[in-house]
Amino acid sequence: MPRVTAAWNGKVIAASNNTIVIEGNHYFPSDDVNHEYLRESRTQTICDWKGVAQYYDIIVNGEVNDDAAWYYPEPKPAAQNIQNRIAFWRGVKVLRETG
């Protein structure tokens, strides 16, 4: 399986050979994410089939990307495979390495 990275503001936030793609988003295992760049956000959203999402702000070199990562702490049964996984958006570059 190819390695996938998530980077923002010149730093790799996550790198994994074990992402799960749902609705076009790569969900990285929490252990493959560099949590030093994450700060809990108060933002929550609700997905009908995945459940309640919690968000992280990403902070790199003093710059903040609000709510740029999310996860489902208690996903609904249909989304159990993304438990303990984190996905990214808002300018975070998610790339599959080739070759």
| Strand segment tally | 9
Number of helices: 0
Shape verdict: globular
* Spatial sequence of strands, sheet with the most strands: 3-4-8-7-6-5
CATH superfamily descriptor: Domain of unknown function (DUF427)
Give me the CATH fold name: Metal Binding Protein, Guanine Nucleotide Exchange Factor, Chain A
**Domains counted in the coordinates: how many?**
1
Can you name the CATH architecture?
Beta Complex
- What is the H-and-E element order? EEEEEEEEE
Portion in strands: over 45%
CATH class: Mainly Beta
The share of residues in helices is: under 10%
Supply the helix-strand structural class. Answer: mainly beta
Unreliable stretches covering 5 or more consecutive residues: none
Describe the fold and architecture.
The structure is a single chain. The strands form 2 sheets. Strands 3-4-8-7-6-5 form a 6-stranded antiparallel sheet, with no helix packed on it. The chain has a single domain (4-96), classed as Beta Complex (Metal Binding Protein, Guanine Nucleotide Exchange Factor, Chain A), CATH 2.170.150.40. By secondary structure, it is mostly beta strands. It is built from no helices and 9 strands. 0% of the residues lie in helices and 57% in strands. Strand 5 and strand 6 form a beta hairpin. The radius of gyration is 13 Å and the shape is globular. It has strands spanning 4-8, 11-16, 20-22, 25-29, 38-47, 51-60, 63-71, 85-88, 93-96. InterPro entries: DUF427 (IPR007361), DUF427_sf (IPR038694). Residues 4-90 form the DUF427 domain. This is DUF427 domain-containing protein. It comes from Methanoculleus frigidifontis. It holds the Pfam family NTP_transf_9.
